[in-house]
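Project outcomes to date are best conveyed with an example. Our students and postdoctoral researchers have been running inverse folding experiments weekly, and each run begins with a structure described purely in C-alpha cells. The record below, which covers 415 residues, was selected by the lab manager from last quarter's runs and is presented without edits.
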C-alpha cells in the first residue's frame, strides 16, 4: 500500500538514534507486521467474516423438504366407529421458489462479504497508520534523549570551566550559581526524556497487545525526509481508496437487498405429494396438494421503496465524503509542505549559524572577552533549535503517514 511504501522509504539510511547501543532494534515493517498479526480488532473482523460466510451459505440453500402426515376418522360413531373408516396420509412437501429468490439471496451474501472485506481493509490501514505514528513518536523521543544527554554534557563542561574561572577570581560567583542551575535543569530534562522514551516504547508495544517492550529501540533516520507524490497524484489515488469505495460497497449491498425484495413480489408455490391409506377399502391412493399465497406484490412494494431510499442516501453520503476527504487531503498536504519547509530551514538556515555562534561565544568566554551569559544563551538557542528540528521532522513523518492513509490504494486483495 502507498503509505506502507512511504513508511519504508522513511527507514532508508537507518541509523541508531538512541544514545545507548541497540541490541534488539525494531523496524517499522516489523512493528506493522506485529500489529496486523496480533491486534484483537482484526481478530474480531475475521470472526465477523466467518459469520457472514456462514450466513451466506445458509441463505443460498434451497427451501427444505417437509415430511408430514394426518389421520382422519380415528374415532367416530356408527359406521365410522373404531378404525374401520380410518384414513391415514403420509405427505412430502416443499416450496418452489419463483422470481429468482435464491439467486438474489446469493448475490446479497456476496455483496455483504465484499463490503466487509473493504471494512477490514480500512481497519488494517487505520492500525498501520496508528503504528506508524507511534513508531515515529518513539524515534523522536530517542532523538530527544540523545539531545538531552548532549545538553547535560555541555552544561557540565561549562560548569567546570566556570568553576575554574571563579576560583581564579576572573568571574563572579554568580556565574557559578547560574552554571549549577543550568546543570540541574539539564539533568531534569534528561530524566523527562528518559521517562518519555520509556512510555513511547510501551505505547508502541501495546499496539500488538503487549504490556512490555521486547525491543531496545526503534531503528530509522528521523531526519531523513522522504519525497512525497504530487497532490494531483494523491487526489487521484484518493478516489480508489477503501474509504471512498465504502459508499459504493454499501450501495451494492442495498441494491442486492432491493433485488431480494423485488423477487419476493413473485409468490412461491407450496406443493406436496403423498400416499393415503383408505382402511375401509383396504386401498392406497396418491394425493397431491398445492397452495399459493396472495398479496406478495403488495408486501414487497414497501421493502423495495425502503431499499431504494437507503440507496439514494448511501450515494449522497458517498458524494459528500468525496468532497470532504478531498478538502482534508489538501489541508494535510499543505501542513506536510510546511513541516518540510520548517525542517529544512532549521537544518540549512538556522542550525549552522547557531553552532557557529556557540563556538564563537565559547572561544570568547575562554579568552575572557565574553560573559558567561553569552555562552549560556548560545547553548540554549542551539538546543531549542535542535529540538524544533526533531519536532518538525517527526511531524513530517506523521503527516506523511496520514496522507498516504487517506490515499491508500485498494489492492483488491482479500484481507
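After processing, the design step wrote out the following sequence:
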Amino acid at each position: 500500500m502507498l503509505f506502507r511504501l512511504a513508511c519504508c522509504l522513511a527507514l532508508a539510511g537507518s541509523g541508531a538514534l538512541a544514545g545507548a547501543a541497540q541490541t534488539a532494534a525494531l523496524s517499522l515493517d516489523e512493528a506493522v507486521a506485529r500489529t496486523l498479526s496480533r491486534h484483537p480488532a482484526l481478530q474480531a473482523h475475521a470472526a465477523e467474516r466467518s459469520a457472514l460466510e456462514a450466513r451466506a451459505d445458509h441463505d443460498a440453500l434451497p427451501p427444505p423438504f417437509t415430511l408430514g402426515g394426518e389421520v382422519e376418522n380415528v374415532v367416530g360413531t356408527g359406521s365410522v366407529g373404531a378404525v374401520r373408516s380410518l384414513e391415514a396420509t403420509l405427505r412430502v412437501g416443499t416450496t418452489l421458489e419463483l422470481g429468482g429468490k435464491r439467486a438474489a439471496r446469493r448475490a446479497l451474501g456476496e455483496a455483504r462479504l465484499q463490503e466487509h472485506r473493504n471494512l477490514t481493509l480500512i481497519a488494517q490501514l487505520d492500525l498501520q497508520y496508528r503504528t506508524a505514528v507511534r513508531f515515529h513518536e518513539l524515534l523522536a523521543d530517542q532523538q530527544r534523549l540523545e539531545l538531552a544527554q548532549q545538553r547535560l554534557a555541555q552544561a557540565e563542561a561549562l560548569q567546570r570551566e566556570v568553576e575554574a574561572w571563579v576560583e581564579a577570581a576572573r568571574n563572579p560567583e554568580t556565574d557559578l550559581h547560574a552554571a549549577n542551575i543550568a546543570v540541574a535543569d539539564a539533568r531534569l530534562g534528561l530524566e523527562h526524556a528518559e521517562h518519555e522514551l520509556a512510555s513511547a516504547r510501551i505505547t508502541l508495544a501495546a499496539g500488538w497487545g503487549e504490556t512490555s517492550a521486547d525491543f531496545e529501540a526503534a531503528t530509522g533516520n528521523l531526519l531523513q525526509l522522504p519525497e512525497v507524490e504530487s497532490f494531483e497524484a494523491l487526489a487521484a489515488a484518493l478516489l480508489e481508496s477503501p474509504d471512498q469505495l465504502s459508499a459504493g460497497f454499501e450501495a451494492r449491498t442495498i441494491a442486492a437487498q432491493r433485488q431480494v425484495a423485488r423477487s419476493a413480489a413473485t409468490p412461491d408455490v407450496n406443493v406436496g405429494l403423498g400416499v393415503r391409506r383408505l382402511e375401509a377399502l383396504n386401498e392406497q391412493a396418491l394425493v397431491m396438494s398445492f397452495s399459493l399465497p396472495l398479496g406478495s406484490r403488495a408486501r414487497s412494494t414497501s421493502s423495495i421503496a425502503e431499499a431504494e431510499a437507503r440507496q439514494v442516501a448511501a450515494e449522497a453520503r458517498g458524494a459528500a465524503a468525496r468532497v470532504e476527504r478531498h478538502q482534508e487531503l489538501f489541508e494535510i498536504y499543505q501542513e506536510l509542505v510546511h513541516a518540510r519547509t520548517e525542517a529544512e530551514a532549521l537544518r540549512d538556515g538556522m542550525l549552522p549559524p547557531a553552532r557557529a555562534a556557540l563556538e564563537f561565544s565559547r572561544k570568547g568566554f575562554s579568552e575572557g572577552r565574553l560573559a558567561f551569559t553569552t555562552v549560556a544563551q548560545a547553548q540554549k538557542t542551539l538546543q531549542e533549535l535542535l529540538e524544533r528540528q526533531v519536532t518538525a521532522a517527526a511531524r513530517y513523518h506523521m503527516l506523511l503517514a496520514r496522507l498516504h492513509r487517506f490515499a491508500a490504494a485498494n489492492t483488491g486483495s482479500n484481507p
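The radius of gyration is 37 Å. The chain has one domain: 2-406. The training component of this project remains on track.
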